[in-house]
C-alpha cells in the first residue's frame, strides 16, 4: 500500500472545541463527560439511561448564512450535517489551502455516521413531512452535503458500519487516493446523541456504564457512556503533499477492514477476526508488529469487549521486542463517540506522532489484571510516553457492533534534514502581506480579532511565513482585509486596529469585480544613485527581473547597470547610463508586478518610459528595446551640454508670448491643463522662469542634462531614425504620449522612436485617452520616484482611480510593493502570492481556524414544520405533474413585512408578494429579503425551493396565473428581477 499523508485536521469533542483543545484535554488527562443537557432530553424521564455523557457545547449552532442555507432548510437539516460543514472548512484550512481553491476538483469526501436518528425523530409524523426534511434527515447525505456546498466532484459517500464507521471511511479514502479517483480526500465521522434510545438498548444489553463513563482496560470498567463528536482529516498521497510543501502531521502506512462473519452473535465481537485485521493491516503497511510502539485501541470499557480485544492484540504484539507495546483508548476521555469513534482515535494518534508524545490513558491507574497485559507483551499507558528519534509507528483499531473491524497503521512524518531547512531560511525582517477574508463585514472583524489573539500568543519574530500562509488559506471570501507587515508585533497591532468596530476600514470592502490596472512608466529625470536598492534587498522577484534586464542591456552597454544603480554611482545622471538604468528599473518593476498576477489593461510611458511600456505591451522584445535604449542614451550623451527643462504650473496659452520671445525654446511636455514643461537653452529658460514668477506662476527647474524634446535633439533623432527596429503591434493597449491617443495596431518603429525624441510629450491627452478607453480603477507608477501620479492627480484625469507606487523614492523597500499588492487584493485581484516571498518563507504556518457566527441556532424539531397543510391540487392539463414537483408551502395571510424597506414594498404590491413568498419558503426574517438579494448566492435557494416559490407566487398573485419554472428561470437573478418579471406578466395579461 502506498503512503498517505495526513495534512489537515479539525475536530470537536466533548470539552474540546478544536484540535488544540483536544490535544490539551488529552495531555492533561481531562474528560468531557457531564450531565445530559435539557436541550436533548429530560434525564429524569429516563431512569434506565445514565444522566451523564459526552456532549458538545453549542451543537445547535450553525452559520447557515455562511453556507448559503436558508433558515428553514437549516432547521430541517440533520445536526450531523450541520456539524460537518464547518468542520470540513476548518480541516481544509488546516491543510494549508483556501477551501474555495478546491471547488470543481475531484476531491473525495468519506464520512462515517451511525444510524439515522434525526430521520426517525422528524419523519415519523407523516403529516409534517416536507422536501427539506426528506433531504435533511438522510444520514446517507452526510458526505454529499459537503461535496455539494464545497462543489467537490470526487467520490462522496457516507459509511455506516456502526462504531467503526469513521475508520472505515479513512480506509476507503486512502484507497480512493491510491487508485487515482481523487487527489485530496476528506475523511472522518460525526456523532450526536439526539435521544436516549440507543442508551436504552445498551442498558438492556448490559453494556451501559452506570455513570456514563467508558473506563477502558480498567478494573472498574462497567460499560459504555455515549458521546458526541465530529472529526475530519485531509488526506493526500505523500508524494503530492511533499511536492506542494504541505505540513504533514503523520503518514498512513496501511489499513485493513474485515468482518466477523458468523460468530457468537451479530453484535458479539470476534477475537479471531480482530486478530486477522491487525495482521492484514501490518502486512499491507509493510511493517512487523514488533515495530509498533503503541496502539490506540477500540477500548470501549465493556468487560467482554476489553477482554476479547486484549487477547487479539496480545496474539499479534506478544512477540520478542525491546519494550512492551503501549496501549490506551481515548474513550476514557470522551466516552464512546460511536460513528466518530475511529476518527477520534486516529486524530489522537496522529497528534501523538506529530508531537512525539503519547498521552496517558484515563482510568489506567486501576488496570484490570484479568487482561494479562504484561504477559501478552503490552502495557497500559499510565503516564505520557515520549517517542524516540526517528520514525515511530502506531496502530489504531475500531470495531463495529455489527462485526466490521478496521485497523490503521500510522508513522511519524518524514523529517526535513536540518541542512535543507538551513538552506531555505529567509530573512527574519522580510515583508509580507497578511490577508483575512470573511463572508460579511461582521465576520471579517470577528476573524481579525481571533487572528490577532492567536498571533499574540506566538513567540515574537518575523511575519513573512505567516503572511504567506494567510495568502494561501484566508483569501477566499467576499470581504477582504490585507496589510503589509514585517513582524508579529506589527501584525498584532494592525489586526487589533482593524478589528475595532470604530475602525472604518476594518470591515473590509467587498469588491464586485477585478481591478482594472494601468501602468504609468516614468521618464528621465526620476533617476538617482541607489534607486530601488531597498526593494532589491527585500524582493526576490525584483532581484530576478532586474538581473534579466541588466543582462539584456550589458550586451550593448558593455557594463552592468545593476551594479551602477545599487552602488550609488553618480554616473547614473549621465544620459548614456541614466536611460539604460531607468529602462532596467521600469522593466524589472513591471515584470515583478506581472509575475504577481497584476496585468495591465493599458500602459503609458512618459518619454523614455515608453520603451519599458512597449516591452510590457509586447510591442518590443526586451533585447530589442535594450539595444534601442542604449543607442538612444549614447546618441544623447554625444550632444553638447547647455540645454535644460523648466516645469511651469500653467497651460500652453500662458507661455505663448514668452516662447515667441525666446527663439529655441519649445513646449516639451503637456502634462496637464496647468502642467507644462518648456525645453531650450539655459539662459532663455532662466528669463522665462523669472517672467512666470513675476506673474505668480510656480516654476521648477528639472534635474536633466539636456533640453530633451526640443530641436536640440535633432542629431540624436536622425541617428535613431536609421536604426532597424524589430517590432510588433502591441498586445496590450498603449496610450501613446507621442501622439496623445491610444495605439491599436500601429507599429512603434524607427520613425516613432525618432520623433519621440524631439517632439513634445502629450501626457495629458494620452492619459485622457487611456482613462476613456479602459476606465482604470488603479493607476500604478512604474519608476524609482513619484512623478506621474502627482501629474495625474493634479490634472484630475483619473479622479476615481486609486494611485499606487511600488517604489516611490529613496526610502522605498519591499513594503511599498507589498502595499501595492495588498491594495489590489482588497480591490478584487487574486495575486500570485508566491512571487512575493523568499523560498525559505514558503512554508505552512498554523493559523487560527475560521470563526463562524454563533448567532444562529437550530434545534427545536417542531419550529420548521407546519401543523396544518393545504391539500395538494391535482395537476391541470396545462401544468402536468413532474417527478420533481414539490408540495406547496402553506400560504400565510398577505401582510406587509416589518423592518426596513416596508414603505417601498407597500408601494409595489408585486415586490411585496415576492418578498413574502421568499420569506415563507426560506424562513428568513422579512428585513433580510431585500430587492438586491440573489436567490442562489445570498438566499441559498435550490431547485426544490424554486418549485415552492413558484407555488407561493401563484397563490399570492392569482392574476398572474400559472407560471412555469422555465419562464421564471431567467428572472431568478434577484428578488427585484423576479418582481419586475412578474410585473411585466401582469401588464401583458391585463392587456
Description:
By secondary structure, the protein is an alpha/beta fold. It contains 35 helices and 28 strands. The strands form six sheets. Strands 1, 2, 5, 6, 7, 8, 9, 10, 11, 13, 15 and 16 form a twelve-stranded mixed sheet that branches. A six-stranded mixed sheet has the order 26-25-20-19-27-28, with helices on both faces. Helix 19 runs antiparallel to helix 21 and helix 26 runs antiparallel to helix 27 (750-758). Residues 418-424 and 861-903 have low confidence and may be disordered.
The major sheet is characterized as: 12 strands, mixed
First and last CA, distance: 73 Å
Estimate the global geometry from the Cα principal axes.
Answer: elongated
Enumerate the spans where pLDDT stays under 50 for 5 or more consecutive residues: 418-424, 861-903
Beta-strand content estimate: 5-15%
Task: Describe, in short, the structure shown.
The protein has 991 residues and is of the alpha/beta class.
Amino acid at each position: 500500500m502506498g503512503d498517505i499523508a495526513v495534512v489537515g485536521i479539525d475536530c470537536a469533542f466533548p470539552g474540546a472545541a478544536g484540535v488544540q483543545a483536544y490535544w490539551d484535554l488529552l495531555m492533561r488527562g481531562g474528560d468531557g463527560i457531564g450531565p445530559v443537557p435539557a436541550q436533548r432530553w429530560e434525564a429524569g424521564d429516563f431512569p434506565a439511561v445514565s444522566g451523564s455523557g459526552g456532549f458538545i457545547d453549542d451543537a445547535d449552532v450553525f452559520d447557515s448564512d455562511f453556507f448559503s442555507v436558508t433558515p428553514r432548510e437549516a432547521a430541517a437539516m440533520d445536526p450531523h450535517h450541520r456539524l460537518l460543514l464547518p468542520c470540513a472548512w476548518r480541516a481544509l484550512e488546516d491543510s494549508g489551502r483556501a477551501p474555495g481553491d478546491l471547488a470543481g476538483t475531484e476531491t473525495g469526501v468519506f464520512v462515517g455516521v451511525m444510524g439515522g436518528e434525526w430521520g426517525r425523530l422528524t419523519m415519523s409524523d407523516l403529516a409534517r413531512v416536507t422536501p427539506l426534511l426528506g433531504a435533511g434527515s438522510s444520514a446517507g447525505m452526510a458526505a454529499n452535503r459537503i461535496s455539494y456546498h464545497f462543489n467537490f466532484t470526487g467520490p462522496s459517500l457516507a459509511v455506516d458500519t456502526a462504531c467503526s464507521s469513521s475508520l472505515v471511511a479513512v480506509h476507503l479514502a486512502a484507497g480512493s487516493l491510491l487508485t487515482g479517483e481523487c487527489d485530496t480526500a476528506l475523511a472522518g465521522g460525526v456523532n450526536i446523541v439526539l435521544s436516549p434510545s440507543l442508551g436504552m438498548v445498551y442498558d438492556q444489553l448490559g453494556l451501559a456504564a452506570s455513570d456514563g463513563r467508558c473506563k477502558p482496560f480498567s478494573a472498574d470498567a462497567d460499560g459504555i457512556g455515549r458521546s458526541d463528536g465530529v472529526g475530519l482529516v485531509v488526506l493526500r498521497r505523500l508524494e503530492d503533499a511533499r511536492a506542494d510543501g504541505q505540513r504533514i502531521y503523520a503518514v498512513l502506512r496501511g489499513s485493513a477492514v474485515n468482518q466477523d462473519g458468523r460468530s457468537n452473535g451479530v453484535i458479539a465481537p470476534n477475537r479471531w477476526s480482530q486478530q486477522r485485521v491487525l495482521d492484514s493491516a501490518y502486512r499491507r503497511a509493510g511493517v512487523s508488529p514488533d515495530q509498533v510502539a503503541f496502539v490506540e485501541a477500540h477500548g470501549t470499557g465493556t468487560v467482554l469487549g476489553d477482554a476479547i480485544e486484549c487477547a487479539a492484540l496480545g496474539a499479534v504484539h506478544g512477540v520478542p521486542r525491546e519494550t512492551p507495546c503501549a496501549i490506551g483508548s481515548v474513550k476514557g476521555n470522551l466516552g464512546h463517540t460511536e460513528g466518530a469513534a475511529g476518527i477520534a482515535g486516529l486524530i489522537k494518534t496522529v497528534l501523538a506522532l506529530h508531537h512525539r508524545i503519547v498521552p496517558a490513558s484515563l482510568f489506567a491507574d486501576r488496570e484490570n489484571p484479568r487482561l494479562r497485559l504484561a504477559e501478552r507483551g503490552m502495557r497500559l499507558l499510565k503516564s505520557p510516553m515520549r517517542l524516540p528519534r526517528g520514525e515511530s509507528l502506531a496502530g489504531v483499531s475500531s470495531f463495529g457492533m455489527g462485526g466490521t473491524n478496521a485497523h490503521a497503521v500510522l508513522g511519524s512524518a518524514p523529517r526535513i534534514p536540518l541542512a535543507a531547512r538551513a538552506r531555505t531560511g529567509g530573512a527574519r525582517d522580510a515583508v509580507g502581506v497578511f490577508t483575512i477574508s470573511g463572508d460579511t463585514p461582521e465576520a471579517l472583524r470577528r476573524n481579525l480579532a481571533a487572528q490577532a489573539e492567536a498571533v499574540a500568543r506566538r513567540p515574537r519574530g518575523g511575519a513573512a511565513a505567516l503572511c504567506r500562509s494567510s495568502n494561501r488559506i484566508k483569501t477566499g471570501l467576499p470581504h477582504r482585509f490585507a496589510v503589509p507587515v514585517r513582524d508579529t508585533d506589527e501584525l498584532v497591532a494592525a489586526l487589533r486596529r482593524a478589528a475595532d468596530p470604530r475602525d472604518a476600514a476594518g470591515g473590509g470592502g467587498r469588491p464586485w469585480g477585478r481591478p482594472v490596472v494601468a501602468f504609468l512608466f516614468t521618464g528621465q529625470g526620476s533617476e538617482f544613485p541607489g534607486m530601488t536598492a531597498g526593494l532589491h534587498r527585500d524582493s526576490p522577484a525584483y532581484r530576478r527581473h532586474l538581473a534579466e534586464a541588466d543582462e539584456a542591456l550589458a550586451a550593448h552597454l558593455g557594463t552592468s547597470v545593476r551594479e551602477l544603480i545599487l552602488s550609488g554611482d553618480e554616473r547614473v545622471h549621465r544620459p548614456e547610463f541614466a536611460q539604460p538604468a531607468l529602462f532596467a528599473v521600469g522593466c524589472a518593476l513591471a515584470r515583478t508586478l506581472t509575475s504577481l498576477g497584476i496585468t495591465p489593461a493599458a500602459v503609458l510611458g512618459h518619454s523614455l518610459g515608453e520603451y519599458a511600456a512597449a516591452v510590457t505591451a509586447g510591442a518590443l522584445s526586451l533585447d530589442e528595446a535594450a539595444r534601442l535604449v542604449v543607442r538612444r542614451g549614447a546618441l544623447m550623451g554625444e550632444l553638447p551640454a547647455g540645454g535644460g527643462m523648466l516645469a511651469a504650473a500653467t497651460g500652453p496659452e500662458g507661455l505663448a508670448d514668452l516662447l515667441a520671445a525666446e527663439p529655441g525654446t519649445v513646449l516639451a511636455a503637456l502634462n496637464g491643463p496647468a502642467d507644462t514643461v518648456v525645453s531650450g537653452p539655459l539662459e532663455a529658460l532662466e528669463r522665462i522662469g523669472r517672467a512666470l514668477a513675476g506673474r505668480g506662476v510656480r516654476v521648477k527647474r528639472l534635474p536633466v542634462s539636456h533640453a530633451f524634446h526640443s530641436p536640440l535633439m535633432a542629431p540624436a533623432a536622425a541617428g535613431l531614425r536609421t536604426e532597424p527596429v524589430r517590432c510588433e503591434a502591441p498586445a496590450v493597449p498603449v496610450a501613446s504620449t507621442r501622439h496623445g491617443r491610444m495605439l491599436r495596431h500601429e507599429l512603434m518603429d524607427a520613425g516613432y522612436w525618432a520623433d519621440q525624441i524631439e517632439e513634445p510629450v502629450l501626457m495629458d491627452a494620452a492619459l485622457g485617452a487611456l482613462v476613456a478607453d479602459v476606465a482604470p480603477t488603479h493607476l500604478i507608477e512604474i519608476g524609482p520616484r513619484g512623478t506621474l501620479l502627482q501629474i495625474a492627480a493634479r490634472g484630475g484625469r483619473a479622479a476615481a482611480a486609486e494611485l499606487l507606487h511600488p517604489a516611490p523614492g529613496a526610502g522605498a523597500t519591499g513594503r511599498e510593493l507589498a502595499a501595492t499588492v495588498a491594495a489590489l487584493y482588497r480591490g478584487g485581484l487574486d495575486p500570485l502570492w508566491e512571487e512575493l516571498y523568499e523560498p525559505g518563507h514558503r512554508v505552512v504556518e498554523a493559523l487560527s481556524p475560521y470563526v463562524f457566527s454563533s448567532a444562529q441556532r437550530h434545534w427545536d424539531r417542531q419550529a420548521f414544520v407546519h401543523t396544518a397543510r393545504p391539500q395538494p391540487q391535482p395537476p391541470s392539463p396545462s401544468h402536468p405533474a413532474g417527478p420533481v414537483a414539490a408540495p406547496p408551502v402553506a400560504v400565510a395571510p398577505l401582510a406587509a413585512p416589518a423592518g426596513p424597506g416596508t414603505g417601498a414594498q407597500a408601494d409595489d404590491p408585486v415586490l411585496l408578494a415576492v418578498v413574502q413568498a421568499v420569506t415563507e419558503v426560506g424562513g428568513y426574517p422579512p428585513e433580510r429579503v431585500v430587492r438586491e438579494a440573489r436567490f442562489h448566492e445570498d438566499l441559498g435557494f435550490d431547485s426544490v425551493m424554486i418549485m415552492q416559490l413558484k407555488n407561493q407566487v401563484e397563490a399570492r398573485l392569482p392574476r398572474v396565473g400559472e407560471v412555469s419554472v422555465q419562464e421564471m428561470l431567467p428572472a431568478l437573478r434577484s428578488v427585484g428581477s423576479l418582481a419586475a418579471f412578474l410585473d411585466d406578466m401582469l401588464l401583458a395579461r391585463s392587456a
